[in-house]
Amino acid sequence: MGRTEGRVAIVTGGAGGIGSAIGKLLCGEGASVLLVDSDKAALAEVETTLRAEQKDIKLSTLVADVGEEASAKHIADQARADFGPVDTLVNCAGMRSYEALAEARTKTWDKIFAVNLLSYAWLTQEVIGDLRASGRGSVVNISSTHAVNPRAGMGQYDVTKAGIVSMTKTLAFEEAKHGIRVNSVCPGLTFTPFHRRRAEEAGRSQADIDLEAQGGCLMGRWADPMEVAYPVLWLASDEASYVTASVLMVDGGRFVL
Ligand SMILES: NC(=O)c1ccc[n+]([C@@H]2O[C@H](COP(=O)([O-])OP(=O)(O)OC[C@H]3O[C@@H](n4cnc5c(N)ncnc54)[C@H](O)[C@@H]3O)[C@@H](O)[C@H]2O)c1
């Protein structure tokens, strides 16, 4: 038996570095997984890779903008149509913005709140009936180490990530009586295709990239996305049956610096 055998999961941001790693593990451990992302090409590529790596997985994909409220119903309906009632939700989609708070525009605030925070709330609401009925519903919300140690230059993003931690705890309070566990995972420096592209655009070498991580956390290196995905798998599975409202730092010890 796989660790998530028989579960029906939705993973948003499923074409990204961390989301695709989570999708890979959940599928590999027996779950039926709907990966959702707004990047059609990247999502198709992830699907092809996962199907090539693991035979007979139960996987489907959906291109959707989670920052649109109406998408939540569409996503939930698709998951149910493909696999049945949902008992596992991993909210992982995220966007970044680099405006200093003194210059932050309302347009950017609206967008980043919708994608990074409200999408988590909307999709949770859409599947809450399924999660309650299952008796072992699990929600894992991907936040960030910067939810608890904000920095200069990404204030809007960090505010949304702090909001995710708060929302996770409140939802855990409210839904414990229905057997739903709600947890957040706070990744630190995790090297994904996004970071590779960004470094290339800025003309930064691998040595520059490595140096950034050396002083950035106790471990002195970047995480591989799988190192974030394994804790998510654990929280999603029955192995974490007594864990709720937790804020799991998966950041190589960055938050203590
Ligand atoms: N990589 C890191 O260092 C790091 C650190 C802390 C937290 N995180 C968080 O982890 C999560 C995954 O990030 P990642 O590093 O894999 O980044 P990523 O950019 O590779 O993945 C994010 C995914 O979300 C998708 N997405 C963005 N806006 C969307 C929208 N409106 N609708 C649907 N999909 C949308 C993107 O297309 C992308 O595939 C994010 O929530 C991010 O904030 C990442």
Descriptive account of the structure:
The structure is a single chain. The chain has 257 residues and is an alpha/beta fold. The protein has a single domain (8-188, 223-251), classed as NAD(P)-binding Rossmann-like Domain (Rossmann fold, 3-Layer(aba) Sandwich), CATH 3.40.50. Helix content is 47%, strand content 14%. It has a 7-stranded parallel beta sheet, sandwiched between helices. β1 (8-12), α1 and β2 (32-37) form a beta-alpha-beta unit. α1 packs across α8 (225-236). The longest helix is centred in the middle third of the chain and has 29 residues, at 106-134. The radius of gyration is 17 Å and the shape is globular. The chain starts with 7 loop residues before the first strand and ends in a 7-residue tail after the last strand. The mean pLDDT is 97. Bound molecules: nicotinamide-adenine-dinucleotide.
Keywords:
Rossmann fold; 7-stranded parallel sheet; binds nicotinamide-adenine-dinucleotide
Summarize this, please?
The protein is α/β, with parallel strands linked by helices and about 260 residues long.
* Highest-level CATH class: Alpha Beta
Bound molecules: nicotinamide-adenine-dinucleotide
- What would you say the CATH architecture is? 3-Layer(aba) Sandwich
**Would you identify the CATH H-level superfamily?**
NAD(P)-binding Rossmann-like Domain
Major sheet characteristics: 7 strands, parallel
Tell me the radius of gyration.
Answer: 17 Å
Strand content: 5-15%
Please report the number of helical segments: 8
Outline type:
globular
The SSE order reads EHEHEHEHEHEHHHE
Strand order, main sheet: write it out. 3-2-1-4-5-6-7
Number of domains: 1
The rounded distance between the terminal residues' Cα atoms is 40 Å
- Tell me, rounded to a whole number, the average pLDDT: 97
Annotation, overall tally of beta strands: 7
Based on secondary structure, the structural category is alpha/beta
Could you name the CATH topology? Answer: Rossmann fold
Q: Which residue ranges are poorly predicted, with pLDDT under 50 across at least 5 consecutive positions? A: none
Helix content: 40-55%
